[in-house]
Fold this protein.
Amino acid sequence: MKKLTPEQLTKLFNHLIRNNTNDVLLNELLDHLACEAEEYLWKGYNFDLALEKITQDANAMAVKYLSQTYQHDIAMTDEQLQNASLDDIVFEFRNKAYGAYDLRQSYPFALRSALILGVGLFLMLMAFLSGMAQGSWNFFSTSGAMWMIGLSGVAYAVGTWFFKKSPHNYALPA
């Protein structure tokens, strides 16, 4: 895909400024317009024709509508800021629908599940190898206890992941 030159980005930036783009949305809209321009360039259009097509869609009315719509949707009040998490503050003026916000929100859960799953699998492997080395198996031995703790950890990690991925399908009755 072809990249825009700094001069071409400046033209897009100036178009947004001429259309009274809100400072909060300026970078977001510039990124969006740059992606559209690069797509047109990739299709074989020259930059001037691509700019003309883009500016027809990103006219003053469209920019004003986006500014009004997103300003009241994304701006936090003082009370919301006091109760906001770091992720909420970082993503305050950004589009949360792209997936990065959800990834950051689910990171502690994923980290905990991965740690429990890893430790559980490790304990099960050690118990299995110990049982193989001894030539016999007893659930009341150290190896048996390691196996059961590991199995419990794996079951917990897989179960919580499963119920988190589809809570509406497999909800426990109240």
Q: What stands out?
A: The chain has two domains: 6-75, 99-165.
